[in-house]
Amino acid sequence: MWEIIIIFLLILVLGMLLYLVFRGKKDHAVDLENALSRAWTKMELGEKITLLADQAKEIQKSYRSFEQMLRTPTERGHFGEISLETILADQLPPTMYGIREKILEGKIPDAHIKSTVGIICIDSKFPLENYRRLVETEEQKEKSNFRKAFKDDVENHLKKIAGEYVCPDKGSAEFAFAYIPVESVAYYLLTEESDLLFKMVKKGVQVVSPLTLSQKVELIKAGVQARYLSEKALVVRKEILSLASSFRKVDEIWKVFYESHLKNVTRKADELDIAYKKLRDEFDNIQKGEINKEFNKE
């Protein structure tokens, strides 16, 4: 890509020079050539172009290494497991997923997710040899043979996943994921083998790529969070009902206390207050009378 850009820039500069020369403006062409030369030297464009060319070669080399890695089943499997684990670790808390752990009475999937509908198993070992041959060959008959072989590989592999990891009676969800780490392969199956994918969905196996798995994981996480909130709401409701029951008991005790005791105490207190006031008035009257007698004697 960088090589194309560099060549394009060189052709553009050369074209400008030729245009000025053929227009009879040789002096302008010389001036432009000198200016470009000075700019080329000052900006160190030669060194930068060399550096870009080296980087482009490194990128191309890395791409070939990556492509070669995907050709080897073992290396491809490791890459699928690593990318799968990265997606789950980025989007889920550690308590919601597991990597190569023994579950479902001894089964060990590449990964699993704990969801509201059961354990969702994920298998990342996908047969891609015949797909690679299909893409690389140019002969139509061979393409047809590799296409059929790849379809058979996929169908057999998905049936194996269904048999091992779709077992609701043992605690799994009613479906499992077949993870394809390469988007182009997933797109090919979606467009060219959609009938097969639909058929396997009915058997409980969904084919996912890095992009679609990320979307499904978010939905699963949202479902778990919704269930958690629902459970918390039930706990709060239970506590409120318990509090209401306790309040009713307190209310009953208060009513008995008020009607049978406090109300009587209040009534007796009122009667005592009236008697006290009456007694106080009589005492005051007696005292006033004695004082008046003493006063008259004098």
Automatic annotation (TrEMBL):
InterPro entries: DNA_recombination_RmuC. GO terms for biological process: DNA recombination. The keyword Transcription regulation does not apply. The chain crosses the membrane at residues 6-22. It comes from the Bacteria. The keyword Amino-acid biosynthesis does not apply. Keywords: Coiled coil, DNA recombination, Membrane, Transmembrane, Transmembrane helix. Involved in DNA recombination. Belongs to the RmuC family. This is DNA recombination protein RmuC.
